[in-house]
Structure formats: C-alpha cells, structure tokens
Amino acid sequence: MYIYGKNILKEIIETRYPVKHIFFSSSKTERGSLKEIVEDVANLGYSYSFSPNEVLEKMALTSKHQGIVIDIGNDFKYENLDIIEGKEKLFLVILDQIQDPHNFGAIVRTSVAAGVDAIIIPKDNAVEVTPVVIKVSSGQIFKIPIIKVTNLSNTIETLKKKNVWVYGADVEGKPYYEIDWQGNICLVFGNEGNGIRKNVKNHCDELVSIPMFNNVESLNVSVSAGIILFEAKKQRTFNKQL
Amino acid sequence: MYIYGKNILKEIIETRYPVKHIFFSSSKTERGSLKEIVEDVANLGYSYSFSPNEVLEKMALTSKHQGIVIDIGNDFKYENLDIIEGKEKLFLVILDQIQDPHNFGAIVRTSVAAGVDAIIIPKDNAVEVTPVVIKVSSGQIFKIPIIKVTNLSNTIETLKKKNVWVYGADVEGKPYYEIDWQGNICLVFGNEGNGIRKNVKNHCDELVSIPMFNNVESLNVSVSAGIILFEAKKQRTFNKQL
After folding, report:
1. From A213's CA, which of A105, A176, B91, B234 has a CA 20 to 30 Å away?
2. So what's the pLDDT on residue B132?
3. By its UniProt entry, which InterPro entries does this protein fall under (chains A, B) (predicted)?
C-alpha cells in the first residue's frame, strides 16, 4: 500500500511506525530539499531508495507526492483489544460500519486531537485503513491504535466487564452535554446512512444525542464525532462535568 | 443545475424554494411510490413533468436519483447582506475561501442545525453552491441564506458597525470554551490549507482556537466548525456562558 507526502512521513518518523520501504525523488534530493528527512530516515534504519519523479508519480497516482512515497506493506498494522489492558481512564471510540474513507480519516484525526486511546472497527462491512484514510487523517493515524474485531457486540460486552461505560450516538439519546464524560468511556458512532445497528445499540449502556434546530435530523458523522469527543475532552481536561 | 433525490425535494417543498423544473420518473410514478410528492409539487404550482429513468440518469449523472431530478436553474439564489437587517441576536458564519464542496456542504448542514442565521462567502476563489454542496448539505442549504460578497474585509467592518462581534478560528486564538457566545456574533473559518487570510484575520475582533492533544495542528474545517458552532449553540440555547 503506497502513501505519500512530507507530513505523513514526518508522522511515521515521529511514531517510529514500521514501514516496508521509502522512495525519495532523485531529482528533489539533488536539489537538497529532502536532505534532512532522508538523514532522519537513514538514522532510524528504515529501508529507502531514490527514484525519478515519473516513477513516484506512478506509485502515488498523483503528482502531489512531494518527492516522497512510502510503501507501508500489504496491510495496515491493526492491533487487538489486549492493547488497552491495564490502562486507566480509558477513552475509546467504536465505529460501527463506517463506509466513507473521508469520514474514517477525519474521525481518526479528531480522535487523536481529543486524546482518544484507541479506535475499534469491525472486521466486516466497514472501510479499512486505506491510503485515503491515512491522507485525510493527515498522518495522525500512526499515533493511535486501530483495533479490528470480529464482533462489536462481544467487544462492547468485554468493555463493560472492564468497567467501561459505553455510549451510542443516536437521535433518541440524552443530550451529549448532560453526560459525565469522566472515567472509562467508549463512544459508538454508526454508519453514515443508518446509524448504529440495532443489535449493537442494544448492547450500549446509554444513548446520547446532539440536539438540533430547524428539524435537521442528523449531521455528517465526522462532525457529530467532533462535537461529542471534544465535549468529552473538555471535561476530561478540567476533571469535572461542565 | 441538476440536483436529485427525495430528501432534497422535500426540503425544497418545505422551504418553498423556487426551482425551474422538476422531472419525475414515469416508471416509478406508475408504481405510485411518488404519488404523494407529485401531488405536493402540483399543489404548490411548481413546473414538472415525467421522463423515463434513462433520461433522469443522464441528467443526474447517477442512477441514485430516486425518480426525482430537479433543475434549479443556472445559479443558486444567493442573498446579499441586507437580509440580516433588523435581526437581533445575530449568529453568522463567514467562510474564507473554502475550496472543497464536501466541507462547504457539511458546514451548511451543521450551521442550520446550530441555528446560524446566514452564511457569508466571498465572490472569488471559493467553492460556490454546486450540486455536490447541496447533496452533502442533505438539502439543508434551502433553509439558510447564502450571502455572496465582493470583499470579506469590508463585510466584517460593516458587521462590526452593526455591533456584531467577529471571531476568527485560528490556532493562535483563545480557547473556544472561554468565550461568551451570546449576543451578535460572527464566526470566520478559513481555507482548508492556509486558514484565514492574514488581511481578513486582521479585521476580526478576536481569534479563537480549539486546544488539542498529541501535537495535532488542525482538524478538518467542517469538524472545527461543528465543535465551535455547537458550543455557541449550547450557550445560546441556555442563555448563559457555560
């Protein structure tokens, strides 16, 4: 899987994310603009090489590669639920069958900014981590574990046993600003068209909604996630329900 | 300009937005599924006709037209600044050179839900109201005036003379949750890559930021808008700074 761009490589370097290979532009390197980042890559022991811009363009499928194309291998490095073991004040996000890579990428970026510990996605019928998701997350995806699970309902039950309170974002819920977002929490956001599946919803401890004017029924899911996650972040920053 | 779909037509009917012509599927009509909405359209005096699905598909450029294609004419019906005259407790949004129709559409939808009175966009170097914007707004755009102006800096000065307090969303600003969002306010959101232009920023009364974890520098602009607009909405709903 090829991804590209300077900012994304910077995030990879910062998080030491293991990649298969990094291709730099031979022409740009000659001009020295990539000198520093090539040195960082070399010092960290990453595998790298130089190719003409035409070659990079074929891999990136765009001319906007900024002289950098990264092969992250066949698959993104997903984690499993063990990674949250022993952590306190858990702040988790579950995405139930999100389809649009732009939504997934934007929610990843927002989640990292809000201090979310991990994002959980189902194995089937959901968008995976694709180059578009990585791009839209502006490389922030390398800073957060993406956990892939077989059955979301089972996962929710496991979380509940770990004293995590699971909230589902749903039009029938309690206003999001009336909730105490401190402690161990998990927020579930549903599919763009249909929301959270009924069987998944039934496993949630509580439903939360965003009250709206003008008979608007719903917002874009990445906007809804931003509104609720940043309300939670605010409370968790100040250690009090506002 | 052709737009399509049942929900969008419903919003047009609800807001009595003037359109040029409405094309219904002749096949679907025979099956009766569009009967009710055709009656509404006829009762309101809209111009309409029936065409085979193949014709609708060519106009909508998709097969997902749901039997309804609407010709809204050559241009969207923009308003000018006079429309806010005499209104109290103004809640306005300015978009400074937003480029992506998905962002524009999502911000429109969010603004309507947050109770914003009007959205102001510049005449040049910004995405206009396109079929994609209308679609992504899920038809909510017909519920809010879109004001097109020649010069945003002049507009901001005009607003200030009307006692509107103008806030620019910027990484250097004061945290958005420390602001009193009551009264006459206008929020300025900048371009996806570069934020608010310097000369526009200089005209703002105050800058506001969204504090973030993990060295994230910015969020998708439609997510940022959602977070700040709904903080403002909350205060304005409860008539107090929270």
Report:
1. A105
2. 94
3. Alpha/beta_knot_MTases, Ribosomal_eL30-like_sf, rRNA_MeTrfase_TrmH, SpoU_MeTrfase, SpoU_subst-bd, tRNA_m1G_MTases_N
pLDDT tens by residue, A159-194: 999 999 999 999 999 999 999 999 999 999 999 989
Q: Considering the domain B2-71 in this protein, what is its CATH number?
A: 3.30.1330.30
Residue A185 CB-density burial (10 A; 0-12 exposed, 13-18 middle, 19+ buried): buried
Amino acid at B8: I
Query: Which superfamily, per CATH, for A81-238?
Result: SPOUT methyltransferase, trefoil knot domain (3.40.1280.10)
Contact residues, chain A, for B216 at CB < 8 Å: 109, 112-113, 140
Averaged pLDDT for residues A198-215: 97
Looking at the predicted complex, does its ipTM rise above 0.85? yes
Q: Where are the domains of chain A?
A: 2-71, 81-238
CB contacts of A214 in chain B (<8 Å) are 112-113, 115, 140, 143
pLDDT of residue A240: 84
Angle, alpha carbons B61-B66-B67 (nearest 5°): 85
Burial of B207 (0-12, 13-18, 19+ CB in 10 A): middle
Q: In the sheet that B48-51 helps form, which strands lie side by side, from edge to edge?
A: B2-4, B68-71, B21-25, B48-51
| pLDDT score of B177 more than 90 | yes
What gap in Å lies between CA A188 and CA B15, rounded to an integer? 33
